[in-house]
Amino acid sequence: MRCACPRCGKGPLFAGFLDVRDACPACGLDLRRHDSGDGPAVFLIFLLGFVVVPPALLISLRVDWPLWLHAIVWSVVILGATVGLIRPVKALTVAIQYRYRRSELEPS
Ligand SMILES: [Zn+2]
Fold first, then answer.
1. Is the pLDDT score of 104 beyond 70?
2. 99 C-alpha vs ligand 1 centroid, how far in Å?
3. pTM of the model
4. How far is the CA of 30 from the centre of ligand 1 (A)?
5. How far apart are CA 3 and CA 14, in angstroms?
């Protein structure tokens, strides 16, 4: 969740916003073969669906907002949460792959 190397926890995992480095600069772990695929997006779809939809429904039942205001508010909330969480969630999927499928990242 700290967006750091799954083995040493010291080297930064990302070279750009979502580009995983080829190797950890601290311990040299080869990260080129990681494959998080659609995992981070799927995690966020489920997480934000459970976290954002109930408050949105409650507010729509209790407050008489126009539809355009709902569209703006919930779009900003969902986009902000997605941009804020996609890096830690991607780092989490790389760490889970390292933990449970280490042979694919670290051939011995
Ligand atoms: Zn490392």
1. no
2. 13
3. 0.82
4. 9
5. 7
What is the spatial distance between Cα 7 and Cα 12, in angstroms, rounded to a whole number?
11
Does residue 78 surpass a pLDDT of 80? yes
Cα separation, 63 vs 43, in Å, equals 30
- Helices 39-62 and 67-100: crossing angle in degrees, nearest 10, is 150
Cβ atoms of 84 and 48 within 8 Å: the answer is: no
Q: How far apart are CA 97 and CA 58, in angstroms?
A: 37
More confident residue, 67 or 33: 67
Nearest to 9 by CA among 25, 20, 22: 25
- Cα 105 to middle of ligand 1, angstroms: 12
Q: Reduced to 3 states, what is the DSSP secondary structure of residue 13?
A: coil
64 CA to centre of ligand 1 in angstroms: 52
